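User: I've been trying to design a sequence by hand for this structure and keep getting stuck. Would you show me what you'd pick, starting by listing the structure so we're on the same page?

Assistant: Good idea, let's start from the same input. This is the structure you sent:
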């Protein structure tokens, strides 16, 4: 199973970005799709996750600004990031959990600066 992320980049504070993560290979049901991030010198933290039933959970620092969604037919997860702040700067990783295992994407850089 391979996860391919896209959509990262450099933006100014207040702007938006949309990340995508597409899974390829034989997976079956993906129980949880999630986004994590890791800033320099910090531990990896959960940004948002969505279950197969559509239940979502967000990190406190992104609540009200970020929205996670999924397209089960395409095995793809999305992260809409609005009102970006400099403290959102990090490498964002996609994670998908399915029967027997989970997979991680390679990471995509998001940089927010004036």
């Amino acid at each position: 199973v391979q996860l391919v992320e896209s959509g990262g980049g450099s933006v100014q504070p207040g702007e938006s970005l949309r990340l995508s993560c597409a899974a390829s290979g034989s997976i079956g049901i993906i129980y949880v799709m999630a986004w994590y991030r890791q800033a320099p010198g910090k531990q990896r933290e959960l940004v948002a996750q969505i279950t197969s039933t559509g239940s979502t959970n967000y990190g406190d620092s992104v609540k009200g600004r970020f929205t996670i969604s999924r397209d089960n037919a395409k095995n793809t997860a999305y992260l809409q990031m609005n009102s970006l702040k400099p403290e959102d700067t990090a490498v964002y990783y996609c994670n998908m959990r399915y029967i027997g295992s989970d997979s991680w994407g390679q990471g995509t850089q998001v940089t927010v600066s004036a």
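That's my pick for every position. To get oriented when you compare it with your attempt: The longest strand covers residues 30-38. The mean pLDDT is 95.
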